[in-house]
Every structure is written in structure tokens, then in C-alpha cells.
Amino acid sequence: MESNKRKPNAFDLLYVYDDDKMVRLPFSFRHLLKPIGIFPFAEDNRYIELEECENKKHTDRDVDTQRLLDVKFCNEVFKIKEQLNQRLTELKQPLLKGIYLAESDYMHGCGWLIGFDDNEFNTLSADYYGGNQPAKLRYQGKYNKKST
Q1: Residue 92's Cα: distance from chain center in Å?
Q2: Over the stretch 92-146, which tens digit does the pLDDT of each residue have?
Q3: Nearest 5 degrees, angle CA 7-CA 96-CA 28?
Q4: How far apart are CA 16 and CA 35, in angstroms?
Q5: Which of 124, 12, 27, 110 is nearest to 71 (CA)?
Q6: For 1-13, how does the pLDDT look when each residue is reduced to its tens digit (9 = 90+)?
């Protein structure tokens, strides 16, 4: 039996409607609605929120450390950052560029920072700093299809 459901694409967008329901739609809907997140990978339900803040610290009270960018996930995102940043440009949203607050399963809670800048090794830079270094803040999340 063949399914009529749409298969997700890389760079689908996340939208909120009716104030609390979320839906994942193709990038082509970008002009019809205001997206809040972008899915870097087709078969992955993790998204990166479009909103970005500057000069935040892990220790700031308003930082939700449970939703910080994940180091392992961002290692994969770094490999496609050029394509992702092209989509962010089309959306007129901040590019993934610079240093961000992050979290890792390895040494959880140690104030990880990751860097999306170009470097000679063409890899994501990541290290822990104790939580008091200012950096950019962007959250990630997992889309739950039941929330639609």
C-alpha cells in the first residue's frame, strides 16, 4: 500500500498556527507564513530555530539550557552549512556563523561553545568553557508530529 503522506525534505520549515500547534511544511511555503525553525535534514525531526540572540551566557537565567544546540547534531549541520546559510539568506534570517552556546552529552553542563566559522580543517570547533563566556544563542528542538 502506497502512502499519500508527503515525505519531508531538507530545509523544510516549522510554523506555529492557532497559537500552539506546529506544522512542518516545504521551504516553498516561506512567503505564505512566518517560519520559526528550519530542518537541516530530510529524515530528521530536529530543527534549528531562526531567532538568534547575541552576548548570552550559559549562566544567564533566561537561557534554556535544555534547548541549546547539540554539539553532535551541529557537527552534521556544519557539513551542509553553506546550503543551510543560503536558505537562511532567502528567509532574511541570521546565518549560522560565529560562536554559539551549546550542550553535549560528553561532559554535560560544562558550558560548551561551538563555532560555525570557516577554518583550515573544515570542521565545527567545539570546546567547553565553564559557562561564563558570551556567545550567540539559538535553540534547537524536536518536531513532534502529534502537535499538529
Answers
A1: 16
A2: 999 999 999 999 887 777 789 999 988 878 889 999 888 889 999 999 999 987 5
A3: 35
A4: 8
A5: 124
A6: 344 577 899 999 9
